[in-house]
Amino acid sequence: MKEIILKTTVGVCKYEELTPADCKLVDAARKATDSSYAPYSHFNVGAAAMLTNGEIITGSNQENAAYPSGLCAERTALFSAGTRFPEQAVTAIAIAARNEQGELPRPISPCGACRQVMLETESRHSQVMRIILYGKECCYIIEGGAKELLPISFDANYL
Ligand code: THU
Predict the structure, then answer these.
(1) β-sheet bridge partners, residue 17
(2) Which of 46, 92, 97, 152 shows a CA-CA span of 20 to 30 A to 57?
(3) What's the rounded Cα separation, in Å, for the pair 85 and 45?
């Protein structure tokens, strides 16, 4: 049997080492945690998407008593960007989270459904998005975009 070896490249750095542009996007994601509605998990997530026209569109997780009806911060931001600026590609997305103790020391990573939506956002505009995951002690940067986080993925080509 042959094997396919999958490789994901993740840059690791401190917040202070981020470029000013990445810091700005990360700060927008951190700020977006303030608008999170998370009465069930008490886990506040913020996402900020940078568009080709320079707009930053933010989103936060919005929970619901019927749990699956809620939506993650990443999809809230990306669907909002798609609604407000359907012609604009997303060049980067930053994600930040905090719990009742405050901001998390390590970055959180988007869930599978959000990765799928990130992938479609990329293919829709033929634009890979830089993914910046914020943690108080370290940040992850995935230059290669959603494909790096979701290999062997399903997309419209299979339909
Ligand atoms: N959540 C996000 O918004 N983004 C993620 O990347 C992971 C999880 C939300 C969903 C739910 O409201 C809460 O965090 C706990 O899972």
Answers:
(1) none
(2) 152
(3) 22
CA 1 to centroid of ligand 1, rounded, Å: 38
Residue pair 12/139 in contact (Cβ under 8 Å)? The answer is yes
How many residues are present in the chain? 159
Give burial (CB, 10 Å; 0-12/13-18/19+) of 76: buried
pTM to 2 decimal places: 0.97
Residue nearest to atom 2 of ligand 1 (CA): 72
Q: Is 61 in the pocket of ligand 1 (CB under 6 A)?
A: yes
Cβ atoms of 108 and 94 closer than 8 Å: no
For the 11-150 domain, the top CATH level (class) is: alpha beta
Which one is catalytic: 74, 100, 103, 143?
74
Q: Residue 95 CA: which ligand 1 atom is closest?
A: 6
Average the pLDDT over 136-146 and give the result.
97
Instruction: Please tell me the predicted confidence (pLDDT) of residue 1.
Output: 96
